[in-house]
Amino acid sequence: MSGTLELITLINQSQPLTDPKVKAAALAGVMDYFSSSLQAKDEIQVQQLLNWIEQEGGHNHFWLIGQNQKATTRQAALFNGFQAHLLDYDDVHAEVRGHPSAVILSALFSSIAQEQTDISGERFLSAYVIGIEVMARLALAVGSEHYVKGWHNTSTLGGIAATAAICYLHQYDFMSQALAVAATQASGLRLLFGTSIKPLHAGMAAQNAIQAVEWVKAGLSAECDFLDPKSGFLAVYGKDKAKLNLSHWGESWKIVSPGLWFKTYPYCSAASYVADAALVLASTIDVSDIRSIDIIFSPQGDEALIYTKPELEEQGRFSAEYITALFLLNKQVSFADFKPVKVRSDVADLMKKIHRRNGVSTGRRFVCIEVTKQNGQVISYQVNQPKGSPENPYTQQEMFAKLEQALNDKHKAEQFYHILQQLPDNSVSHFVQQVAELI
Amino acid sequence: MSGTLELITLINQSQPLTDPKVKAAALAGVMDYFSSSLQAKDEIQVQQLLNWIEQEGGHNHFWLIGQNQKATTRQAALFNGFQAHLLDYDDVHAEVRGHPSAVILSALFSSIAQEQTDISGERFLSAYVIGIEVMARLALAVGSEHYVKGWHNTSTLGGIAATAAICYLHQYDFMSQALAVAATQASGLRLLFGTSIKPLHAGMAAQNAIQAVEWVKAGLSAECDFLDPKSGFLAVYGKDKAKLNLSHWGESWKIVSPGLWFKTYPYCSAASYVADAALVLASTIDVSDIRSIDIIFSPQGDEALIYTKPELEEQGRFSAEYITALFLLNKQVSFADFKPVKVRSDVADLMKKIHRRNGVSTGRRFVCIEVTKQNGQVISYQVNQPKGSPENPYTQQEMFAKLEQALNDKHKAEQFYHILQQLPDNSVSHFVQQVAELI
Q: In whole angstroms, what is the distance from residue A219 CA to residue A224 CA?
């Protein structure tokens, strides 16, 4: 098998939590997952998906986070993935070029409902770390061509990564077959960015992982190599002769290096470069004094920002123009600025003055905004490391504030934090029970 | 919108059943769908999927064909698609390069469970015809490169086609959004051929269509153009600048021309050329007298036959070598020859003498088998139009015999045939009820 056996062997031998940095990163990821999910729990789209689940029915296997309701493992994976990613408020990983935790944690949590044996929090966190590792290495293997072509990595790679994580968690001996079933379900187009289906991609990927594992467990055969060089996952979804690089496995972990990128804003991380620059410029520029605005991206830096003229606010999550105009007009943005309604006319007017162009490659990502005033004067600001990125992270206080806002209760946030710190020494089902009771 | 609006307009204006040939073809397709599905109803893999559905639970919306059981619309679409395609015994369409009816009919039948209004059999059959039309035209648009790259058309194109069919059936005004949600779920790799997941691809595609329609109906937005030239379905899954050709829509229908290709054998239609040639040669050749065998394919004619040295019988459905050896040794093949067990040693030995090569293109598909005897004498036989293909169709009697075998009861087969003939003038839910009671 072309790398698959080696991958599975490496996964099954892994004990990533022996490194305290890895443990801390995994706990931070779980905390942010709950913050992002709970912030979204009252959104209209959440209710729409809940109604659909109600209409399906099914056994009550696992908790729908923040809802007083349980659902099947498959539905819970779908729902929890969706809710965690709904506001585009959940973590990002630069090498993954997508959102790992919404998929992997949603799938992992659901998977525990189908097993009688108690799983330790330490093994659960390890499985999460491994999921991110697989997802990032798959992303590096398919290369940026995959994303540029139009695939949404969160979805196409997330299902496979989550399947690997689940199989590690429960020590399933059918990981090779499950990976093939996950690969044959891989889908998700960037075309859907700016619609309610984009966050559902995270749920779909988590659902695919649950289906992959459960179908194989039910007895359906999938004896083939998901990394087959001729017609396997990388051959079909990747560039020509794409290969999975497994070197230096376990020497450092992708969850630490380059690390997770957290957000306190509900738009695409690619727009956070734009946002940080626009925020600085907003304090010095009067909108009526603007003749034109140029946004200069490092090459392919705006690939995710597919809307240059968004008509709906929710499309604005993926629009450099919308975010820039919003900051210049309002000096801030909030959740209320990204609803499925028409863009305000003053924002639409200002967007018309904005143009994008590609800058010269410096070997790393940047965005520079150049504002030309009516008198011809040019003011510019460049961002290389936006707030929240691993090189410029939020403080623990800021991440706690995100949790507190999501729970809307400081005491509950403190209790959640306390419960979370005990997870490595506890069983994961006990952790889930405690959290469900708290929220 | 790049063709999408035109496509939807054409679909909604279509009344294909005014042509009696179309009506007859649609009825033949429905009959073969039930024959193929019922033949598989007692297979071990069917029980495995039933167990999984049992474990999920859910409301009883629609019948699992041939089982004394109902399930949710999503589960029923998944299950019925799987069962219809399980033995690779269901219809094929040359332009689709896959199995349209297992996907489209499974999705269409399930969809009626969610609507209160009665749907006429005529409209149901029309929706089926339209589904095949969309699937074939999408297949022509993505081109043979799509299949050759490793995609399984049945799955990648089936979900979108079935979504179009459902939206036509119920006159939904959200077809554009539903098509985008179907497109972003499109998946399925030929890598899985020869495993139990290959037939599940048909179920997955039917499930995707149900999900696409139900999610949009639940309120989730998907305002985008699934044929977007930059990042839409054809741009990502097709060759460069792939375009959907809508000319001559409704002048003839793909279900009639080139028409459905029916099977009375449980292996890939690409192997049926091989099988027909091997059967002829089997009557004149003694296996002990064979020195070597050459199978000559028209260019790319063996793309679906991915196993040259199958280890398991079920992989043999996609092996020219297995089918040839089987016919030469046994003079016939049966369902019992394609179980998930090791290939018999005498078959494995004979397969070692078989080699493939590509012949010179004649502009149409063919297979020629050349047997070289121990004394050097060469005997060959070429097949251009295998039995069951639209140019060499089975008789009505032969198709009835398939139904009778599946039902294992001549009287029931006659009754089914009678009920089916009334479908165009009946409601489809009445038809389903009658069939369920009969079986």
A: 15
- Tokens representing A343 are 């863009």
In what helix (H) or strand (E) does residue A382 lie, and over which residues does it extend?
Answer: strand A378-383
How far is A361 from A358, CA to CA, in rounded Å? 9
**Confidence (pLDDT) at B280:** 95
B residues 262-281 lying closer than 8 A (beta carbon) to A: none
By Cβ distance, the residue of A49, A190, A222 closest to B195 is A222
Per residue in B90-127, pLDDT (tens digit) is 999 999 999 999 999 999 999 999 888 899 999 999 99
Q: Which residues of chain A make contact with B200, given a CB cutoff of 8 A? A: 215, 220
CA pseudo-torsion sign A404, A408, A410, A413: negative
CB neighbour class for A101 (10 Å; exposed up to 12, middle 13-18, buried from 19):
buried
Mind listing the pLDDT tens digit for each residue in B209-265? Answer: 999 999 999 999 999 999 999 999 999 999 888 999 999 999 999 999 999 999 999
List the single best residue of A74, A149, A189, A317 to mutate versus B (max B Cβ within 10 A).
A189
Give yes or no for a contact between A362 and A351, defined as CB atoms under 8 angstroms apart. Answer: no
Adjacency order of strands within the sheet including B354-358: B354-358, B290-297, B367-373, B378-383
How far is Cα B255 from Cα B264, in angstroms, rounded to an integer?
19
C-alpha–C-alpha distance, residues B187 and B174, integer Å: 22
Q: Which contiguous run of DSSP H or E holds residue A290?
A: strand A290-297
**Residue B184 is nearest to which of A191, A194, A233, comparing CB atoms?**
A191
Q: How many CB atoms lie within 10 A of CB A289?
A: 11
Question: Could A195 and B180 be called an inter-chain contact, meaning their C-beta atoms sit closer than 8 Å?
Answer: yes
Average pLDDT on A143-163 reads 97
Q: Are A249 and A16 in contact (CB under 8 A)?
A: no
CA B245 to chain CA centroid, nearest Å: 22
pLDDT beyond 70 at A1:
no
pLDDT beneath 70, residues of chain B:
1-2
State the Cα–Cα distance between residues A72 and B57, nearest whole angstrom.
8
Q: Please compute the mean of the pLDDT values over residues A347-372 and round it to a whole number.
A: 95
Q: Does A50 touch chain B (CB under 8 A)?
A: no
C-alpha separations of B337 from A79, B87, B333, B428 in Å: 42, 11, 7, 36
pLDDT at B174: 98
- Amino acid identity for residue B11 in this structure: I
Percentage of residues of chain A with pLDDT beyond 70: 100
Helix (H, G, I), strand (E, B) or coil at A357: strand
What confidence score (pLDDT) does residue B172 get?
Answer: 98
Q: DSSP letter string over A386-405?
A: -TTSTTSPPPHHHHHHHHHH
pLDDT surpassing 90 at residue A114: no
Closest C-alpha among B198, B192, B120 to residue B158: B198
Beta strands A260-261 and A290-297 are unpaired
How distant, in Å, are the alpha carbons of A31, A107, A108, A128 from that of A125?
12, 13, 10, 5
pLDDT of residue B116: 82
Write down the H helix ranges in A186-298.
197-218, 233-237, 270-282
Closest chain B residue to the Cα of A190, Cα to Cα: B231
Cα B209 to Cα B160: distance, rounded to the nearest angstrom: 7
Is the minimum CB–CB distance between A196 and chain B shorter than 8 Å?
Answer: yes
Enclosing H/E stretch for A8: helix A4-13
Q: Is A228 on the interface with B (CB under 8 A)?
A: yes
Angle at CA A314, nearest 5°, toward B237 and B157? Answer: 20
Rounded CA-CA distance A168/A162 in Å is 10
Q: What is d(CA B280, CA B284) in angstroms, rounded to the nearest whole number? A: 7
Q: Which residues does chain B have within 8 Å of residue A218's beta carbon, measured at their own beta carbons? A: 48-49, 51-52, 55
